[in-house]
Amino acid sequence: MISGSLVALATPMNPDGTLDWERLDGLVDFHVKNGTDAIVAVGTTGESATLNPDEHCAVIRRVVERVDGRIAVIAGTGANSTTEAIDLTKEAKNIGVDACLLVTPYYNKPTQEGLYLHYKTVAEAVDVDQILYNVPGRTAVDMLNDTVVRLADIPNITGVKDATGDLARGKELIQLVGDRMAVYSGDDATAVELILLGAKGNISVTANVLPKDMADMCRLALEGNAEDARKIDQRLAALNNKLFVEANPIPVKWALQQLGLIQEGIRLPLTPLSEMYHQDVLAALKGAGAL
Fold first, then answer.
1. Hey, where's the site called L-lysine inhibitor binding on this chain (predicted)?
2. Is the entire prediction scored with pTM above 0.85?
3. Which of 57, 168, 169, 184 is least surrounded by Cβ atoms within 10 Å, i.e. has the fewest?
4. Residue 203 annotated as part of some ligand binding site
5. CA angle 172, 79, 190 (to 5 degrees)
6. Other C-beta atoms within 10 Å of 274: how many?
């Protein structure tokens, strides 16, 4: 079972929006060196919605090749079309990922039965470990805990990323399915508390800029060392907040640029971080020890 700090990796781009392969390699090495337990390639933070299918698969392939077995690789392969999700998941399996992360089908607003059948169909079509991903704030669809319970009976659905930020709901989810699948936090601000309640790790945006700190925090929380885990969490709290002053991954890509890890490159309709937020994000980076 994959556990610990799972970075939702930003996809580096050149100023003209083309993919920056050299800096992608650099980010992979940066995470391996600093203790990140797994890389999630081409999820929301990786701008999956702005990459075409060929680019999407090329980034997954490059990450897998660069990681070269040193840590786990999870591929974002969700789509609002079930057939497209199957195609992406098949390709990711062929590339050699350890698991796939599938976001709920955005925009369509499917029913709970539609969500169940969507995930069931993908799981039955592709024999690879699959992690459900519920982020209603971005998708306009909320997968209820009862639906996750039904999906937990499918052998290769091995986890769920809960990005609701609702600790009471996350606790209930762990109680309902924690013996059959891994529950991961998808919300940096509440991650340490969810891990202390029984979650297996955090799929993190903040880990992009402070991978060692996030890895240490997750490890301590998994060990049950609440005091030391919360000390790190308190130091990261302002950064966790400021990395969402505009839509993810706008702030985190700007932060990575300030650290010299990537160039200024992002694709429309996303835009560079508004100047009015520059000082706030800089102050949070400094306060957390990133600068």
1. 49, 80, 84, 106
2. yes
3. 168
4. yes
5. 35
6. 12
Give residue 277's Cα distance to chain centre.
23
Q: Which residue is it, tokens 């999700």?
A: 85
| Cα gap 114→123, rounded to integer Å | 14
- For all residues of the chain together, what is the average pLDDT? 98
Which residues 6+ apart lie within 8 Å of 26 measured at CB?
12, 261
Residue 291 domain flag: no
| 102-141 burial code (b ≥16 CB/10 A, e <16) | bbbbbebebeeebbbebbbebbeebebbbbbbbbeeebeb
Cβ neighbours around 147 below 10 Å, total: 20
Mean pLDDT of all residues in 268-278: 98
Matching residue, tokens 């995930």: 119
In-domain check, residue 122: yes
Place of tokens 């556990």: 3
pLDDT in tens, 192-226: 999 999 999 999 999 999 999 999 999 999 999 99
For position 182, which CATH number holds? 3.20.20.70
Amino acid at 107: Y
Which DSSP string do the residues of 62-113 spell out, in sequence order? Answer: HHHHHHTTSSEEEEE---SSHHHHHHHHHHHHHHT-SEEEEE--TTT---HH
195 known member of a binding site: no
Name 53's Cβ contacts closer than 8 Å, sequence gap at least 6.
84, 87, 88
Q: Which stretches of the chain are assigned E, i.e. beta strand? A: 4-8, 38-41, 72-76, 99-103, 130-134, 157-162, 182-185, 201-204
So which residues are the catalytic ones? Answer: 133, 161
Range of the domain at 30: 4-223
Query: How many domains is the chain partitioned into structurally?
Result: 1
Residue 8 DSSP SS3? strand
